[in-house]
Design a protein that fits this description.
Layout (H helix, E strand, L loop, with lengths): L2 H9 L2 E2 L4 E3 L5 E3 L1 E2 L8 E2 H12 L10 H20 L7 E6 L3 H15 L5 E5 L8 H6 L2 E5 L13 H11 L3 E7 L11 H10 L3 E5 L11 H4 L3 E5 L10 E6 H4 L12 E4 L4 E3 L14 H17 L1 H20 L4 E3 L12 E6 L4 H12 L1 E2 L1 E3 L4 H14 L11 H4 L4 E5 L6 H16 L1 H6 L1 E4 L3 E4 L12 H9 L4
Parallel strand pairs: 4-17, 7-8, 7-9, 9-10, 10-11
Antiparallel strand pairs: 1-5, 2-3, 6-12, 11-12, 13-14, 15-16, 16-19, 18-19, 20-21
């Protein structure tokens, strides 16, 4: 199968894309899933590989029975697939799995590096970061300096490289590392990682990259960019249920102690002492691993490597431009982040409809058009507040108020449409039609919804049937109802 044919086949392979839901007009139809920045859908062939493994399931770290031998080989293959996907030289880099997303990896690295180099007590973090690549550094490091972005207000985004150079010149060898996103989960703005790495390494600092929003959208080369540590979530790249992945230089890992202790990461244990193994990645993977999730992720990465991430990126750029320009042209709609012509970005577009709270926009898109988007601050509160600052001021609201009331929270956020490999131009055309329709029916829509909680909204005359919302108890009833 050619790369082009494989990519087309993968685009059509996702589980759940054709799941049908009801709409206000009494019709049913397949959803348009534009919430990939939160979690992607599952790639079917990768799911099939994981399901086949379960037929042979056993734990790893043995080869003395057939099933364990297969599990150990598959788990090792998953590590190799991760390294190959991010172009990391296996002689220089090690990959290991941690937790259920990027959060565990960043907590581990922040804790370990702060202990390993206490004399370097400054850490740099960009203002675009998801909380998972901000809060761990605040907690474990004594002094965090937040690096600002370019532009202001709704166009704020993209790392301010001139200011970053000044910060490196100011703090020099006091800097332990810099933690940046590969691409923002709010605006999609892409960070020039190779340039950041050169600045960091000039003063002996490390570069830690959150690739969760970049990994499914653009090629990543740890070798070319000289990245020290890269972390991403498998559920952001078509493998829900998989663990988080950490890829780190072996020279970095050699400086730190094992972050988690338990079975599998020791060479021997006595009553009086224990000896952690120096074998990687075993030293970093205490306990029984998420073998099924790792194999599923490995399968996704292997298929995407064969299809070519350059082809994925090429396809997405056209869709980004189409959606961005289409939303910008709708009167009464605000879009956020730098213009794609100024700062390269991935397929994540945050927007608001004038007169609608972000929760109302998301609810109405779901109820009337079967379009599923995310809303809120996307676990990136400081960045979102900067983007919304002028609008909040115009409403006489302090965007930095620490104890905002519910009505403020309903306004302090955005709707976010985010693309995946399965997203088509037709999906985005439907989004543009829906947004135009909501703008034209603003008063009618406002009269039909009531606020729920801090940012939720419910239609006052429409309620989906219970069977349309997944319920695990109900799913088990068919099994329990079977005759013995």
């Amino acid at each position: 199968m050619s790369n082009t044919d494989l990519l087309a086949s993968l685009q059509a392979s996702f589980i759940g894309r054709d799941t049908e839901y009801p709409t206000v007009d009494g019709k049913r139809g397949p959803r348009i899933y534009l919430d990939s920045a939160a979690s992607t859908l599952m790639m079917a062939p990768a799911y099939d590989v994981g399901h086949e493994f379960l037929v042979h399931y056993a734990s790893t770290h043995s080869d003395l029975h057939y099933a364990a031998r297969g599990a150990s080989h598959a788990f090792e293959w998953a590590h190799e697939s991760v390294l190959e996907f991010v172009d990391a030289d296996p002689d220089q880099y090690c990959s290991f799995f941690a937790g259920s997303g990027a959060t565990a990896g960043f907590n581990r690295m922040a804790a370990s590096l702060s202990c390993a180099r206490p004399e370097r007590d400054i850490v740099l973090v960009s203002e675009m970061e998801h909380h998972s690549n901000d809060l761990p550094h605040r907690h474990h490091c004594s002094h965090v300096v937040h690096v600002p972005c370019l532009g202001e207000f709704e166009r704020y985004g993209g790392l301010d490289m001139d200011r970053l150079r000044e910060i490196f010149d100011e703090h020099g060898e006091k800097i332990n590392y810099i933690a940046v996103t590969g691409a923002s989960n709010v605006s999609g703005a892409i960070t020039p990682l190779a340039e950041v790495a050169k600045l960091a390494h000039a003063v002996g600092a490390y570069l830690l990259v959150d690739a969760s929003q970049m990994i499914a959208h653009a090629p990543v080369s740890m070798n070319d960019a000289d990245i020290d540590v890269l972390v991403f979530s498998g559920h952001k790249i078509y493998a829900p249920g998989s663990p988080g992945a950490v890829i780190a230089k072996k020279s970095v890992l050699s400086e730190i102690k094992p972050a988690e202790l338990g079975g599998g990461m020791v060479d021997d244990v006595y009553i009086a002492e224990y000896m952690p193994t120096q074998t990687l990645p075993d030293r970093e993977e205490a306990g029984t691993p998420n073998i099924v999730g790792a194999i599923t992720l490995g399968a996704v990465l292997d298929l995407l490597t064969k299809a070519g991430m350059d082809k994925v990126r090429e396809k997405e750029i056209g869709l980004i431009d189409f959606a961005w320009n289409g939303l910008k042209q709708i009167e009464g709609v605000s879009v956020y982040g730098p213009n794609p012509e100024d700062v390269p970005r991935t397929g994540t577009i945050a927007f608001n409809i004038k007169g609608f709270d972000h929760g109302l926009t998301a609810a109405a898109l779901n109820d009337y058009y079967n379009i599923q988007v995310r809303n809120g601050c996307f676990c990136a509160h400081p960045y979102v507040r900067e983007l919304l600052k002028k609008e909040m001021w115009d409403m006489d609201i302090d965007p930095d108020a620490p104890n905002a009331e519910a009505d403020v929270e309903r306004k302090r956020g955005m709707a976010r449409a985010s693309l995946g490999l399965y997203t088509t131009r037709a999906d985005l055309e439907a989004l543009l039609v829906a947004v135009r329709d909501l703008v034209s029916r603003r008063d009618e829509i406002l009269s039909l919804y009531e606020p729920i909680g801090s940012n939720g909204y419910r239609h006052t005359k429409f309620e989906p049937a219970a069977n349309d919302i997944f319920d695990p108890e109900r799913s088990l009833q068919s099994y329990l109802a079977q005759p013995a």
